[in-house]
C-alpha cells in the first residue's frame, strides 16, 4: 500500500493514508516523499471526505474507518483494482509470484531492465537498494510487479494477482502459507491456476520445474509458452523436451559464484555479493523474465553483478568489532532455513545467532510450528520472541520438537524484547571482548514486522559495551 501511494502521487493525486504500527523503511520512505501518514484507523481520518478510498486487505468489517466509509457512501476500491485501472492497463506487466523470493526476484528483474536502459515502471513490497523508492510509473510499457496471492480486500476475496493482467509470469516456488485465508495448499494452487488463465497465449510462464506443487498448477491448464528452471537439468525428466529449461551450477558453496545454463549450454557466469542457493534461483528467474522482453543473459549477468540487494533481505545494519547485525524479512520455516544455510556456507566457522519473531498470520496460528526446529539447524544459537497474540506457546511446541529433529542449537525464548536484547548482548559479548579479531559473530534478526525496534536497540547496546572496553 505504501508503494501504491507513491504511484498515486506520481500520477498527480493528493495522497494521505492511515495505518497501524508503521515502521522503517516504508514509514521513512513515505515521509521523505511527502505523503501524510495518520496512525490508526479512525473515522476522522476520512474527514473531509476523499474522492476515493483505497482499502488494503488488512482491514475488515468492524474497523472504525471501514464502517464510516460504508455509512457515508464513499467511493472505494481495492489496491489491486486501482492498480489495474490506473497503472497496469495497456502495459507489458511482468508479475513475480511464489511463496518465497518475490521481493528479491522482482527487484532483480527491475534492476536488470533498468541496467538495460529500458526505464521500467515497478511496484515492489520492499525497497531495492538500487532505487530510491519502492515504486514508480516508469517511461516505457514495461512494468514489474510483486504479485501476491493474498486476498484483495474484505469485499473481494480473489487473490490480488488476478487483477494485474500479466504478459510474463514468474512462479518462484509454491508452499502452504497464509493459513488465515487458505485451508490447504490446493486452495492456493487454485488461485495460481486463475492467474495462468489470464496470461495471453503469446505470454510466458516461467516456473520452478523442480517443485511438484508448481507442476500441479500447470497441469490444471496453461495456455502460454512455458519455460522451466531448476537446480538439476534432469529434474524434469520427460518434460525436458517440451520447452526451454534453465539450471545453475554453483562455483562456490555459498552461491557467491555460479554459472547458468540454458538447455545444457552455458550462457552466463555471475560473481556477486549475495549468497544462498535461494538467491541463485531468484537470479535465474529474473534473468529468464528479462530475456522474455529482449535482454540477453550476458547483459543480465552484468546487471546482477552490480545488484545491491533489497532492504530487510539480509541487510547488513551494523558491524561492531567483528559482530555483524542483519535485518531479514524471513517469516516462514523455508525462508528461515535457506537464509541461515546461505550464511553458514559463507561463514562456516563463525557463530550465527538467529533472532526470530513468529509474527505472520500463519505463524500466529501455529501452522508451521512443527517445521521451525529443523529450520534453524545452521544457527549456533537462537533467541525466540513470543509476541502477544500468538495462538501457541513456543516453550511447548518448539522445545518439544527440537530433540526429535536432532537439531543441537542453543535455544532461548522470551516474551519481553528487552530480555531478548540482554540475551543477545550476553551471547556476543565474549566476541566483543576477544583479543583475537578473527572471532566473528553474525546476529540475524528475522521478522516481517518492526519487532519493537529491536534492531537499533541491540546495535546501541553492543556499541555501548564496546565503548566501555
Would you kindly provide a brief summary of this structure?
The protein is an alpha/beta fold and 469 residues long.
Can you put this structure into words, describing what you see?
The protein has 469 residues and is an alpha/beta fold. The protein is 34% helix and 22% strand. A ten-stranded mixed sheet has the order 7-6-8-5-11-12-13-14-15-16. A six-stranded mixed sheet has the order 17-18-22-19-20-21, sandwiched between helices. A two-stranded parallel sheet has the order 1-2. A hairpin with a 6-residue loop joins strand 14 (245-250) and strand 15. The model is unreliable at 233-241 (pLDDT under 50).
Could you say which structural class the secondary elements and strand pairing correspond to? alpha/beta
Regions with little confidence, pLDDT below 50 for 5+ residues: 233-241
Order of strands across the widest beta sheet? 7-6-8-5-11-12-13-14-15-16
Binned, the helix content reads 25-40%
Distance between the termini: 45 Å
Instruction: Estimate the strand proportion.
Output: 15-25%
Q: What is the overall pLDDT average?
A: 87
Radius of gyration: 22 Å
Count of individual helical segments: 15
Amino acid at each position: 500500500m505504501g508503494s501504491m501511494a507513491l504511484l498515486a502521487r506520481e500520477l498527480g493525486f493528493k495522497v494521505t493514508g492511515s495505518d497501524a504500527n508503521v515502521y522503517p523503511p516504508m514509514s521513512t520512505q513515505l515521509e521523505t516523499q511527502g505523503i501524510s501518514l495518520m496512525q490508526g484507523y479512525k473515522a476522522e481520518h476520512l474527514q473531509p471526505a476523499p474522492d476515493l478510498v483505497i482499502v488494503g486487505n488488512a482491514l475488515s468489517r468492524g474497523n472504525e474507518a471501514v464502517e464510516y466509509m460504508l455509512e457515508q457512501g464513499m467511493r472505494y476500491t481495492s489496491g489491486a483494482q486501482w492498480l489495474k485501472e490506473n497503472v497496469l492497463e495497456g502495459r507489458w506487466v511482468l508479475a513475480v509470484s511464489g511463496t518465497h523470493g518475490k521481493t528479491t526476484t522482482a527487484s532483480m528483474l527491475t534492476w536488470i531492465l533498468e541496467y538495460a536502459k529500458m526505464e521500467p515502471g515497478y511496484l515492489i513490497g520492499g525497497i531495492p537498494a538500487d532505487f530510491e523508492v519502492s515504486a514508480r510509473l516508469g517511461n516505457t510499457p514495461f512494468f514489474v510487479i510483486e504479485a501476491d496471492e493474498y486476498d484483495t480486500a474484505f469485499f473481494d476475496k480473489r487473490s490480488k494477482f488476478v487483477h494485474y493482467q500479466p504478459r510474463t509470469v514468474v512462479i518462484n516456488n509454491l508452499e502452504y502459507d497464509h493459513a488465515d485465508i487458505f485451508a490447504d495448499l490446493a486452495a492456493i494452487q487454485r488461485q495460481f491456476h486463475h492467474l495462468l488463465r489470464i496470461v495471453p497465449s503469446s505470454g510466458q510462464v516461467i516456473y520452478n520445474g523442480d517443485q511438484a506443487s508448481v507442476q500441479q498448477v500447470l497441469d490444471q491448464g496453461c495456455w502460454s509458452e512455458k519455460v522451466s528452471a531448476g537446480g538439476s537439468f534432469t529434474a524434469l525428466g520427460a518434460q525436458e523436451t517440451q520447452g526451454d529449461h534453465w539450471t545453475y551450477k554453483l562455483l562456490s558453496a555459498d552461491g557467491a559464484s555460479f554459472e547458468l545454463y540454458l538447455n545444457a549450454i552455458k550462457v552466463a557466469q555471475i560473481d556477486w555479493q549475495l549468497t544462498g542457493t535461494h538467491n541463485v534461483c531468484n537470479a535465474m528467474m529474473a534473468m529468464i523474465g528479462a530475456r522474455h522482453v529482449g535482454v540477453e543473459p550476458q547483459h543480465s549477468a552484468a546487471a546482477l553483478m552490480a545488484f545491491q540487494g533489497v532492504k530487510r533481505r539480509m541487510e547488513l545494519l551494523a558491524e561492531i568489532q567483528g559482530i555483524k547485525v542483519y535485518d531479514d524479512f524471513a517469516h516462514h520455516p523455508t525462508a528461515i532455513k535457506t537464509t541461515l544455510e546461505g550464511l553458514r556456507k559463507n561463514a562456516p566457522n563463525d557463530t550465527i545467532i538467529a533472532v526470530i519473531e513468529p509474527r505472520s498470520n500463519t505463524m500466529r496460528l501455529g501452522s508451521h510450528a512443527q517445521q521451525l526446529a529443523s529450520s534453524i539447524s545452521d544457527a549456533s544459537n537462537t533467541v525466540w520472541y513470543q509476541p502477544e497474540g500468538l495462538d501457541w506457546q513456543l516453550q511447548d511446541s518448539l522445545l518439544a520438537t527440537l530433540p526429535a529433529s536432532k537439531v543441537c542449537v542453543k535455544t532461548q525464548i522470551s516474551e519481553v524484547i528487552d530480555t531478548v536484547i540482554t540475551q543477545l548482548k550476553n551471547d556476543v559479548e565474549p566476541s566483543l571482548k576477544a583479543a583475537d579479531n578473527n572471532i566473528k559473530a553474525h546476529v540475524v534478526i528475522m521478522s516481517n514486522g518492526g519487532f519493537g525496534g529491536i534492531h537499533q536497540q541491540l546495535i546501541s547496546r553492543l556499541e555501548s559495551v564496546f565503548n566501555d572496553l
